[in-house]
Each structure stands twice: as C-alpha cells, then as structure tokens.
Amino acid sequence: MTRLYGIIGHPLGHTLSPLVHNWGFARFGIEARYEAWATLPEELPAFMARVRETPIQGLSVTIPHKTAVMDFVDVVTDLGREVGAVNTLFWRGGALHADNTDVEGFCRPLVVRGIAPGAALLLGCGGAARAVAAGLRRLQVPRIGVTGRSLDKARALALEFGLEPVAWEDRADFPAALVVNATPIGMSGRQEGVSPYPAAAWEPGRLAYDLVYNPYETRFLAEAARAGAGVVPGLEMFLYQAVEQFCLWTGRVLPDDELRPLLRQALYGG
C-alpha cells in the first residue's frame, strides 16, 4: 500500500518539499507519495484528525502552523519544546511525535565546513531566528548576539536563549565571526536587493550565512564575498532540514550531492 506524506501550511506557494521527498521515495524504491495540502488555521483541527484516521505517515509543517500543531500530537521532542516550534511530524510506537529539523538544517552546513565561530550575531527575532538560536547553542558558540528592528523583541529572545541583545543600529559593532540573516530582508520580491547588514562591516575571516534561498546570491552574501568574507547560501539549510526530515520518516539518508543540483535546477534553472 502506498504510504502518504505531505506538507501543511498557508500559503504554500511553490513549495519544493514535494519535489525533494518524491524524488527521495523514487530513488530508494519506497512506495510512497508526498503531497501539498494548503491548510488555513481554522482547518487545522480537522486536518489533524485526518492525519490519525487516514493515517498520514509523516508531515512537514510550515507557517502558520509550526506552534499550533504542537497541541495535536502525542509527543513533542525536547528540541521542539526548546525552539517553541516544530516542522516535522512522524509516528513512533503508535504515538504521533513532533520535532524540529530546522535546527539540524542550520547546523549541518557549518559542521561539514568545520566552522566553529567564537562569536555569532543573529539578525532577526522571529520563528526562523529561534531555530538558529537553538542551533548556535547546540554548536556551543561562546558568545551570541541577537538584534532586530525591535530591541524589545531582541531582549525577549536573548533572555529566553541566553544571548546578548544588540541594538539594530549597533549591529555592525558586535565582534561576530559569523553573521546569520534570519530576516526576510533580501528575499525575492519587494525586499530583493536589500541587505540587513552594512557592507562596510565585512572583512576577510568573517562568515555570512543567509537563510534566504531565493535569490541564490542575496545582496547580503554578495557584499560579504566582495569583501573577502566566506558565505553560506540559504539553500544549504533548506536542503539539510529536508534530509533530516526524510531520515526521520524512512531511516534513509538523501545524498546531498545529488539533491543540491536538483534543487538548484528547480529554483534557479541551473
């Protein structure tokens, strides 16, 4: 029998998750399919009843359900509780579990590159920033600053995760070897061509990590590269969170060297 997986969120737009997971099922000869289910907030209770009745074997969760869905599962992992949001649902021993693979998705590109910064600055205070904050703590970065246009929000996130709040206007003065953009600034659309970080602050030996993956090279990354700093494009985090998700569902590891060009072709045509 074909096993059923999918993603819920609203809006889903042109989500790449069906491409990734259906490719993975085909590659490993797994009889399963992955679908996109646009789900409004008021539709979430009925959909989660369907998850148990169908049953749906695994679920990706995106905005706006990453927190609300936690009320409809049997077990939330320690990491999911730490982040305060989940993006992956799976079954273990008859119980529906919720976990967060965004943290692994963020950490893995740094680990494979052997990067262990002494200090990091997190730009942004939203949901994506929470996963990054948890990831930086997991990597045991000694000093972590967080900044946003709202200093109150930066302070609240700093208090929760043990970070240092930094005023937005002072962000270039924080001595960070790694700067992570967890804001939508630079994303394709009306914010494309804008950077959340001053170009003059970049220098060799620093690293820019953008969670925005469309366009592939944001202004944030381009300015860092021109100054001789290293860069990690946002596609890397998306790729590795999907790899971790697929592994939770199937026990199989998607080969990143095969998945990366597939995603690049779908996103950028090359």
Automatic annotation (TrEMBL):
<keyword id="KW-0560">Oxidoreductase</keyword>
<feature type="binding site">
    <location>
        <position position="234"/>
    </location>
    <ligand>
        <name>NADP(+)</name>
    </ligand>
</feature>
<feature type="binding site">
    <location>
        <position position="213"/>
    </location>
    <ligand>
        <name>shikimate</name>
    </ligand>
</feature>
<feature type="domain" description="SDH C-terminal">
    <location>
        <begin position="234"/>
        <end position="258"/>
    </location>
</feature>
<keyword id="KW-0057">Aromatic amino acid biosynthesis</keyword>
<comment type="similarity">
    <text>Belongs to the shikimate dehydrogenase family.</text>
</comment>
<feature type="active site" description="Proton acceptor">
    <location>
        <position position="66"/>
    </location>
</feature>
<keyword id="KW-0521">NADP</keyword>
<comment type="function">
    <text>Involved in the biosynthesis of the chorismate, which leads to the biosynthesis of aromatic amino acids. Catalyzes the reversible NADPH linked reduction of 3-dehydroshikimate (DHSA) to yield shikimate (SA).</text>
</comment>
<dbReference type="GO" id="GO:0004764">
    <property type="term" value="F:shikimate 3-dehydrogenase (NADP+) activity"/>
</dbReference>
<comment type="subunit">
    <text>Homodimer.</text>
</comment>
<dbReference type="GO" id="GO:0019632">
    <property type="term" value="P:shikimate metabolic process"/>
</dbReference>
<dbReference type="Pfam" id="PF18317">
    <property type="entry name" value="SDH_C"/>
</dbReference>
<protein>
    <recommendedName>
        <fullName>Shikimate dehydrogenase (NADP(+))</fullName>
        <ecNumber>1.1.1.25</ecNumber>
    </recommendedName>
</protein>
<dbReference type="GO" id="GO:0009423">
    <property type="term" value="P:chorismate biosynthetic process"/>
</dbReference>
<feature type="binding site">
    <location>
        <position position="87"/>
    </location>
    <ligand>
        <name>shikimate</name>
    </ligand>
</feature>
<dbReference type="InterPro" id="IPR013708">
    <property type="entry name" value="Shikimate_DH-bd_N"/>
</dbReference>
<feature type="binding site">
    <location>
        <position position="62"/>
    </location>
    <ligand>
        <name>shikimate</name>
    </ligand>
</feature>
<feature type="domain" description="Shikimate dehydrogenase substrate binding N-terminal">
    <location>
        <begin position="7"/>
        <end position="89"/>
    </location>
</feature>
<dbReference type="GO" id="GO:0050661">
    <property type="term" value="F:NADP binding"/>
</dbReference>
<feature type="binding site">
    <location>
        <position position="102"/>
    </location>
    <ligand>
        <name>shikimate</name>
    </ligand>
</feature>
<dbReference type="Pfam" id="PF08501">
    <property type="entry name" value="Shikimate_dh_N"/>
</dbReference>
<dbReference type="GO" id="GO:0009073">
    <property type="term" value="P:aromatic amino acid family biosynthetic process"/>
</dbReference>
<dbReference type="InterPro" id="IPR041121">
    <property type="entry name" value="SDH_C"/>
</dbReference>
<dbReference type="GO" id="GO:0005829">
    <property type="term" value="C:cytosol"/>
</dbReference>
<feature type="binding site">
    <location>
        <position position="211"/>
    </location>
    <ligand>
        <name>NADP(+)</name>
    </ligand>
</feature>
<dbReference type="GO" id="GO:0008652">
    <property type="term" value="P:amino acid biosynthetic process"/>
</dbReference>
<keyword id="KW-0028">Amino-acid biosynthesis</keyword>
<dbReference type="InterPro" id="IPR046346">
    <property type="entry name" value="Aminoacid_DH-like_N_sf"/>
</dbReference>
<comment type="pathway">
    <text>Metabolic intermediate biosynthesis; chorismate biosynthesis; chorismate from D-erythrose 4-phosphate and phosphoenolpyruvate: step 4/7.</text>
</comment>
<dbReference type="InterPro" id="IPR036291">
    <property type="entry name" value="NAD(P)-bd_dom_sf"/>
</dbReference>
<feature type="binding site">
    <location>
        <position position="78"/>
    </location>
    <ligand>
        <name>NADP(+)</name>
    </ligand>
</feature>
<dbReference type="InterPro" id="IPR022893">
    <property type="entry name" value="Shikimate_DH_fam"/>
</dbReference>
<feature type="binding site">
    <location>
        <position position="241"/>
    </location>
    <ligand>
        <name>shikimate</name>
    </ligand>
</feature>
<feature type="binding site">
    <location>
        <begin position="15"/>
        <end position="17"/>
    </location>
    <ligand>
        <name>shikimate</name>
    </ligand>
</feature>
